[in-house]
Specification:
Elements (H helix, E strand, L loop, with lengths): L7 H9 L3 H23 L2 H20 L9 H19 L10 H9 L2 H23 L3 H11 L5 H8 L3 H21 L1 H5 L1
Helix pairs in contact: 1-2, 2-3, 2-4, 3-4, 7-9, 8-9
């Protein structure tokens, strides 16, 4: 019971020192925020459970290997791990969150005319494919901020916390990403209009 009032940093130290109950206190303290964040990105309860578990497997491995050095900033560190695992999931699935096939989308498909639906789907896929090609030309840090802002609807404060940079740096990366994207679009205009 005494664990409940201890700060995160003390609980982390206690866990590293062998107190297994300290970790369950940390998980209980932050699980709704971390799970809520994951669920808001993947919109699937089972997948959210898997990513949540993977997040804490990574947390445990890092703490046990004594390579944790974010003293006093436990939650932002865990949120970054969760965010990276969500990004990895979409990378492996080769799709962005905005292309998800949700129940609502599937029901809508059955209600529309099939020919129009197939044509619309092909156009959507082409647009998504073209956009992904353009995004691939951006530097990794700029692409990450753009995707987090535009497709995952995160605030610049959340982006700054998750990527471990200041809000000004996150804003700067977004600004450069948009400028570079504009240049890439101008450069590729002939290809895009073909």
């Amino acid at each position: 019971m005494a664990n409940l009032v201890l700060p995160d940093a003390v609980l982390v130290k206690n866990y590293i020192g062998g107190d297994e109950s300290a970790l369950s206190t940390l998980i209980q303290r932050h699980q709704s925020k971390i799970f809520g964040f994951i669920y808001s990105k993947v919109n699937d309860r089972d997948l959210s459970d898997d990513i949540f578990q993977d997040t804490f497997i990574k947390v445990i491995k890092t703490l046990k290997s004594h390579s944790y050095n974010e003293e006093g900033k436990f939650l932002p560190w865990v949120m970054r791990i969760a965010h990276n695992l969500v990004v990895d999931h979409y990378r492996k699935a080769k799709k962005m969150p905005y292309q998800r096939d949700t129940e609502e989308y599937s029901v809508f498909n059955y209600m529309t005319d099939n020919v129009l639906n197939i044509e619309g789907q092909m156009i959507s896929e082409q647009v998504a494919s073209d956009l992904n090609k353009l995004l691939e030309e951006l530097p990794e840090d700029q692409k990450e901020v753009l995707v987090m802002r535009m497709y995952q609807d995160l605030s610049f404060k959340e982006i700054a916390d998750l990527t471990g940079v200041s809000i000004n740096t996150a804003l700067g990366r977004m600004r450069y990403a948009l400028l570079n994207l504009r240049k890439i679009i101008e450069k590729n205009q002939i290809i895009l209009t073909n």
